Amino acid sequence: MQVTRIGLDIAKNVFQGHGVDAHGTVVIRKQLSRSKGLGYFAQLPACRIGIEACGSAHYWGRELQKLGHEIRLMAVQLIKPYRTKQKNDRNDADAICEAVSRPQMRYVPGKTVEQQAVLTVHRARELLVSEPGALQNLRTKPRLDPPVGVRTQDIESQSHRFELPLPVLFDECVFVCAADPDRLRFPRLVIRHGRQFP
Fold first, then answer.
1. Which domain-ending residue is among 56, 71, 100?
2. For the residues of the chain, what is the DSSP string, one character each?
């Protein structure tokens, strides 16, 4: 039987997949590590994949779409009624798979990298307005210390895992946050990019 739709619950370390065929029979119930996720979905024929909308869902949606799958992002509150058992990854994937099959389901549009960078600018501005001391701390602290219990060597040895191309807007946002103590340029940055990406 060929899988026609999959509910994918993404978490920090593992993905839980629940796939059904055209008749609604379960054909996939699989837990995948993040590193093996894309490889697994590359082997599957193109199908509809439902994902709970969150920050990383947009990234995974873009990556799975490159493999030819049809991606549907859904708000958490719209998936909740389809969960019939206790909340865990397996039952969440089952509920997502059921929710993505509904014809009246409302979907969240996927965001591009640039659109997510614009959101970063807006969130950074909210932080600067609500927490003015955070900017001063950022400007006076010579470097960022690693979290408690994490050695600097560990961060440096793992840095290759996080080399993603960042949009120019994101770099500009970080520069403005660090270099503009009065935050005078920030509104212009938000307005200029707000027009570019409505």
1. 100
2. ----EEEEEE-SSEEEEEEE-TTS-EEEEEEEEHHHHHHHHHHSPS-EEEEE-SHHHHHHHHHHHHTT-EEEEE-HHHHGGG--S--SHHHHHHHHHHHHT-TT---BPP--HHHHHHHHHHHHHHHHHH-HHHHHHHHH-SSPPPPTT--HHHHHHHGGGG--PPPHHHHHHHHHHHH-TT--SHHHHHHHHHHH--
Containing domain of residue 79, as a range?
A: 5-100
The tens-digit pLDDT sequence of the chain (198 residues) is 689 999 999 987 889 999 999 898 999 999 998 888 889 999 999 999 999 998 789 989 999 999 999 999 999 899 988 888 888 888 889 999 999 999 889 999 988 888 887 777 777 777 666 766 665 554 444 344 444 444 545 444 444 444 455 566 666 666 665 565 555 555 565 555 555 544
Residues 167 and 140 reside in one and the same domain: yes
105 within domain boundaries: no
Domain count, the chain: 2
Is the domain of 32 the same as that of 85?
yes
